[in-house]
Amino acid sequence: MSAIEPAGRRDGRIPVSPQLALRVAILGGLAMAMFAIIFFRLWFLQVLSGEQYVQQANANRARDLPIAAPRGEILDREGQPLVASRTTNAVQIVPSALPPAGRQRIRLYRRLGRLLGMTGPHIQALVIKGRTALPYAPVTIKTDAGRGALTVLAERQSEFPGVAQQPVSIRAYPYGAMAAQVLGYVGQVSESELKLRAFDGVKQGTVVGQEGLEYYYDRYLRGRPGIQRVEVNASGYPVPSKLAPTAPKSGYSLKVTLDLALQREGEKALLEGIENSRAGGKPADAGAFVALDPRNGQVLAMGSSPTFDPNKFAKPLTKSEYAALEGKSGASGEEAPAPLTDRAVNGTYPTGSTFKPITAMGTLEAGVINPTEGLGAGQCISVSTEQFCNAGKADYGAVGLVEALKVSSDTYFFQAGELANSHGNVIQREAHKLGVGEQTGIDLPSEITGLVPDRAWRAKVARQELRCEKRRHVSSCGISDGRPWSVGDNMHLAVGQGDLLTSPLQMAVAYSTLANAFTNGGDGWVVRPHLGMEIDAAQGRLVQSLSFPAQRHVHLNDEDVNLVMEGIHEAASQPGGTSAAVWAGWDQAQHPVYGKTGTAQHVGKEDQSWYMCYVGDPTRPIVIAVTVEQGGFGAETAAPIARLLASQWFGEPKKFVAGSSRTF
Amino acid sequence: MTPLSPITAPEQPPAGAGRAQVRPRTLRLPLDPLLTLAVIGLAVCSMVTLGAATRDLVAGQPHYYTDRQLTYLIVGSLLMIALSRFDYARLRPLKNVIYGALIFSILAVLALGHTARGSQRAINLPFFSFQASELGKVLLTLALASLVVDRARRLRDRDTTALVMLAALVPAMFVIAQPDLGSGMVYVMIALTLLFVAGTSWKHLTALLALGLVSLTFVLVAAPAVGVHVLKPYQVQRLTAFLHPTTNAQKEGYQQEESKIAIGSGQKFGRGTNATQTKLNYVPEDHTDFVFAAVGEQYGFLGAAFVLALYGLLIWRALRILVMSKDLFGSLVAAGVAAMLMFQVFVNVGMTIGIMPITGVTLPLMSYGGSSVITTLLAVGLLQSIYIQARASQALKGRVLR
Predict the structure, then answer these.
(1) Which of these, A76, A525, B137, B215, has the minimum number of CB atoms within 10 Å of its CB?
(2) What does the pLDDT read at residue B402?
(3) Interface contact flag, A53 B296, Cβ < 8 Å
(4) pLDDT of residue B279
């Protein structure tokens, strides 16, 4: 090679032997030949044929089609499926195999439509929509075509070119409407959802959870779709891929704290209670229940009525169907209770007398009342011009705290509320402390905050009203009447009326806190109610245990808690107690019941029936909250439902025992 | 190649100054500037190409590959500088140790290696997975060079040729069994080149070539015909796919076809950020074995020619150092390195442009991968050491010892 001779010639430093020189020259020549070949080839590829390769690169329209992953199941605490995935044959259209556009294709659509009970233009619209969303992918026309139609399609394939059947996995809710609001439902991910962080990495067209647990735990349940690569040849037809598809990874299953048997009994009892109440002439139309393990906040059962069948969401809903689910009934446009609303978590109600134990705790702790001092003598209490009376103008005389809780004396608590007002927000602070008027942190997509009214809140809404009136130049915006906080407000709050707004779940948390303090010498904790228990892989292998530690610890005076609990225990067990009749025949020694009835009054509506109770047990205590809108007195409607739930939980004979106590 | 440019000037000490300026061999001795320039140029090209080709490969981590490649390049460069300061001649007596280490490391991979894409090539170390067959290229070069020097007086003997070829074929077989066909072929090429440069008779070389052709025919045609599969079916498919790319619907032909489309579509000046073939992952492995496809598509003929020019510079310097070495051992080591670089560049680039079979050979310094980058930089370190020692002996003695 030329490198050697000159160097050698110049100063003779490198006396290379002729043989080495020759051989290195050959090596160098070889290298040059190689580079020459590569350069010529590159020139040919890039400069001479470049144009053609650019076209090929642009025409290279490989597409990755997702293969849907089977969604994980939702299991109850014993492992029985509450939500499963069912495989069914979907009718699909493969666009590339369709007859040419025009009359032939229109006729095919019409023929197919007749078979599936759809219109031709509807099918055409679906195909066009599907093709723009995901080019080259088959378009699903119907998921539940029925066996007859599928057989016809299979047997007469030649009459339906481009129509194929594809097994797809769809969501199945074997118990139908049971716990529908809690479990939620699924649907194709929407444009706006794709932008959310919760749906990071989700491809268009994926079926994701839209409500309830399906939504909250979606990232565990949805799994990972597989990928089928489709390539398109020069004529625009997809050709079978040269690359093997990646298999989808099915979602994890979610085990929840719900007890299937208790849940079913709860739903049944709630319906029974509502029907009973309607039979008694009350326009009861909605209700909810929550059963909580007071020690750790596990939700054992939770239901809301009216309810809906999430199976309906497996296929597209019509507008009127959806309006009905939102509580807007059809043509008349009148408002009915919305089935989609989970009243246990998102219902906002005054609670009636079930709030009284909270008032009692607050006033005792602040030293406002003396438990042995008799209060509330007479039928009514008058403060300035307003009269505050017992239900049915009853007169319980001046009674102590325990007796007041037992008979649910309104006058006693009106007076306690009046006394507390001069000590500041005694009741309000206690309510927040126990968990009312605060979000509970439950693992569901939404929950209400509620409202425990106090001075600051009154002042705030008055300011808002004023601003609104000024801005809009109207005499009233309806936010507030602008008056300041009054002693009457505090008295109404003391009996769970007035502006108080809370949910059955929050009340269940508050009663759990009381129960915890009661069983633990005054040291209680506010649980975080939750449904998720663990995430399991296929074959039940544990992936992750979900843990929901208590929200906070609270300290209550031991003696005060004992007094309050004694009061509501007597209410449920002693003759004259408001719900004693409901629990007639119940083994109070084995499973002591601490229960309080409530009857919340609404303007222009029938009273709302409430019942809250804690049933003690060394191994499986339970807190139950029940409410029935327009259900009348608490002892009449809500309390018997609670008894049915407790009977189911403790394996006692089930009996619907309506109480007769006509107290608020 | 005309080397007599001003660039070689620094090599020449001022006339007569050789003895006057006797200096101990110190760290002040320079590296070969052109060789260093080629290495730096290729390292920069590698970073730029990988930066564009791997941006979307790891979701959320656009710098995943470039950060690692930079680390390998820095570690390799430090090793290269360290090795250049070391007298390579001291490695000569260690040939048995080096050869033993080579065999041991390859067997260790076979024994505990971890299977990547069906091949057992690497041992997973905490920081990166170590590919023994890559480092083996340098170890084998050193061991064989030493062996040939020991037998310098008996070079024309048939025994010597046979011994050298055997010494190369044993590790080559183990490596092919891993299976890493590319590295095994590099080993054989290194042995052949060493023999060729050392001066083995033409008769022996011709015989070896004939033997090679016969065994290749046997492996590819005769043995499968009677049901013996020396190579795995996919290897045979890869080796022959380039002969009929369009009829081969298998993955092998597909990959090469996409690579050709990528390079061709680069045209004269490249598609830059519009490089769909490599960006949309039509060319698999466009950051490792098919990195040249990424260069060709992104920067066109211009970029590809520039990279090839840098390789030309690298190979020319290797051959130049081969002839200026102070002793035969240095010459042979340089020959081994030159053979490795030439073979890998030609086979790898040839594979991406569809004139060579797919063998899984990396493009030195350009392909992403720690073992390959560090091994190549070690080899360059040896070249630098030979260069420095040659310059030092010139400076000290005013003449060259051979």
Answers:
(1) B215
(2) 44
(3) no
(4) 66
**How do A593-600 and A139-142 pair as beta strands?**
unpaired
**Cβ contact (<8 Å) for B254 and A57?**
no
Which residues in chain B have their CB less than 8 angstroms from residue A15's CB?
400, 402
* CATH class of segment(s) A64-256: alpha beta
Best mutation target, A27, A47, A232, to test chain B (most B CBs within 10 A):
A27
Tokens for A90? Answer: 């979907």
Q: From the list B267, B338, B346, which residue is nearest A46 (CB)?
A: B267
Q: What percent of chain A has pLDDT over 70?
A: 92
List, for residues B63-81, the tens digit of each pLDDT value: 888 999 999 999 999 999 9
Helical pair B181-198 and B132-150, crossing angle rounded to 10 deg: 20
- The whole-number pLDDT of residue A623 equals 96
What is the average pLDDT score of chain B?
Answer: 83
Query: Could B264 and A24 be called an inter-chain contact, meaning their C-beta atoms sit closer than 8 Å?
Result: no
Of B285 and A625, the structure prediction assigns the larger pLDDT to: A625
The architecture (CATH level 2) of A260-315+345-650 comes to 3-Layer(aba) Sandwich (3.40)
Residues of A in contact with B323 (CB under 8 A): 3-4, 7, 14, 16, 20-21, 24
Q: Find which of A5, A22, A38, A230 to mutate to test the B interface (most B CBs within 10 Å of its CB).
A: A38
For B192-221, what is each residue's pLDDT tens digit?
999 999 988 899 999 999 998 898 888 777
Mean pLDDT of B89-118: 83
Task: Enumerate the residues of chain B whose CB falls inside 8 A of the CB of residue A241.
Answer: none
Q: Determine which of B254, B297, B323, B363 to mutate to test the interface with A (most A C-beta atoms within 10 Å).
A: B323
B71–chain A nearest CA distance, Å: 30
Q: In this structure, are residues B342 and B316 in contact, taking their beta carbons and an 8 Å threshold?
A: no
3 state SS for chain B: CCCCCHHHHHHCCCCCHHHHCCCCCCCCCCCCHHHHHHHHHHHHHHHHHHHHHCCCCCCCCCCHHHHHHHHHHHHHHHHHHHHHCCCHHHHHHHHHHHHHHHHHHHHHHHHHCEEECCEEEEEECCCCEEEHHHHHHHHHHHHHHHHHHHCHHHCCCHHHHHHHHHHHHHHHHHHHHCCCHHHHHHHHHHHHHHHHHHCCCHHHHHHHHHHHHHHHHHHHHHHHHCCCCCCCHHHHHHHHHCCCCCCCCCHHHHHHHHHHHHHHHCCCCCCHHHCHHHHCCCCCCCCCCCHHHHHHHHHHHHHHHHHHHHHHHHHHHHHHHHHHCCCHHHHHHHHHHHHHHHHHHHHHHHHHCCCCCCCCCCCCCCCCCHHHHHHHHHHHHHHHHHHHHHHHHHHHHCCCCC
Please judge whether A7 and B400 are an interchain contact, meaning their C-beta atoms are less than 8 angstroms apart: no
Residue A36, chain B, CB below 8 Å: the answer is: no
Q: Given B265, B304, B338, which is nearest A57 (Cβ)?
A: B265
Kindly report the three-state secondary structure assignment for every residue of B226-269. Answer: CCCCCCCHHHHHHHHHCCCCCCCCCHHHHHHHHHHHHHHHCCCC
Cis peptide before A121 (omega within 30 of 0): no
Domain extents for chain A?
4-59, 64-256, 260-315+345-650
* B34 Cα to chain A: minimum distance (Å): 14
Give the helix/strand (H/E) hosting A129: helix A120-133
Specify the amino acid at residue B52.
A
**pTM of the full structure:** 0.59
If 0-12 CB within 10 Å is exposed, 13-18 middle and 19+ buried, where does residue A385 land? exposed
Question: Out of B199, B300, B350, whose CB is closest to A38?
Answer: B350
ipTM exceeding 0.90, yes/no: no
* Sequence ranges of the domains in chain B: 28-200+232-397
| Comparison of pLDDT for B233 and A463, the residue scoring more | A463
